[in-house]
Amino acid sequence: SRTARGGPVEPLDAFPVLGRALAAPLAAAWIGVVLFLLGRRDGPRTEDRALEVLLLGAAAWIALVAAMTVGGYAGLPRFLAPATAAIAVVGGVGVARAAARGFGHRRRGMTARPALAAAAVVALLVGVAGVGLRAADVPGDLRDVDRQSMLVDGMFELAGWVPAERLVVCGDRVRLANLLTPPTALAWKLDRPLTSVRTIAHPEYGVALSTRALPGRRIAQIGRWRATDLGC
């Protein structure tokens, strides 16, 4: 817990988490959630209780991640995966029910409701488009992950060779001059709080880890990564 926490309470840090929580599920899932809630006006079902628990659990989980981020912890996108899955399940049920009610089911004596049918079709089309767009992003995402993994591995090798006390000698912080490398990874490697790592493109003092040459005395270099003492 000590090494995971990043700093003081920052209320505004909750907004990026909420934004990621909205963007994580497909838009079709949110349409389905709305359809599920609207469908409850036709009368609750026995199985609705489980779906309500899922939806409330998702909201509570998002609130928990946001609260912990405000408290100084890292609100990483992967922390929202459970809530995203729950929203997708409820949204899928909402679209399926809207389709059943919209198109009608003669054996059950249901009357077709064109508005619900149209909403279900729109949700399905939006879902297909959303899956296509995200699938198109996968190759680029894989390249980014591969590139970032190589950066992190090199940084870990350097951070494992230089004593942590030497890196944080100035103000109990090390400067990370590579904006593509997550500071959480370096803090974890050094077994230090996130406040011990400051990401800055052009550090002016302290010890900086970078993949490019910086003015100052080079302490060590492994591959592309180098540790430079800029003075304190």
How would you describe this protein?
The protein is built from 7 helices and 5 strands, in the order ααααααβαββββ. The protein has a 5-stranded mixed β-sheet with strand order 2-1-3-5-4, with helices on one face. With 232 residues, the protein is an alpha/beta fold.
Summed up:
Helices cover 56% and strands 9% of the residues. It has helices at residues 14-23, 27-39, 48-70, 81-103, 114-161, 164-167, 183-190, and strands at residues 174-176, 197-199, 207-210, 217-222, 225-229.
Taking all Cα atoms into account, the compactness measure Rg is 24 Å
Low-pLDDT residue intervals, each spanning 5 or more residues: none
Order of helices and strands: HHHHHHEHEEEE
Shape: elongated
Q: What is the average of the pLDDT values?
A: 86
Task: Note the total helix count.
Answer: 7
Tell me the structural class. Answer: alpha/beta
The helix content, as a percent range, equals 55-70%
> Going across the major beta sheet, what is the strand order?
2-1-3-5-4
Tally of DSSP β-strands: 5
> Could you tell me the strand content as a percent range?
5-15%
Query: What is the CA-CA span between the terminal residues?
Result: 29 Å
The largest sheet is:
5 strands, mixed
